[in-house]
Predict the structure of Diacylglycerol kinase.
Amino acid sequence: MKKFILGRVRSIGYAFTGFFFLIRTEHAIISQLILAGIFTGLGFYVEISREEWIWQVLAIGLVLSTESLNTAIENICDFIHPDFNTKIGTIKDIASGAVTFAALTAMIIAGLIYIPYFLE
Ligand SMILES: Nc1ncnc2c1ncn2[C@@H]1O[C@H](COP(=O)(O)OP(=O)(O)OP(=O)(O)O)[C@@H](O)[C@H]1O
């Protein structure tokens, strides 16, 4: 049991190391965080409902998580094959495509939340 708990605590530590690495060094994550900050400010400004906050937080989390996984895939690609390779290019494009899915979803959610407020 003690070994199990220690293992879990250590894993949380590694996870936070990755978290801080991303927010310190990854430009894509930093830009998404700035955007998340802008939308958080907008949420307070137009006083969105509790339910709309939940959707907004989920949308932000979805984009940041997908972007983080995309960064991990890019790093693996650059590590295993630093030179130009069409397969590596396709893998990176696919990982970016996943971010696009998440970003489009977030844009639709943002539209559903904010367009009615701005039409009022
Ligand atoms: N080794 C490679 N071989 C072939 N094509 C590559 C290679 N590296 C990158 N590419 C192409 O360039 C695109 C951008 O790759 P890159 O690694 O620069 O990511 P990025 O989207 O600019 O991310 P970031 O801004 O986080 O660095 C890829 O989606 C792929 O099409």
Q: What stands out?
A: The mean pLDDT is 97. DSSP finds four helices and no strands in the chain. The first helix runs from residue 2 to 25.
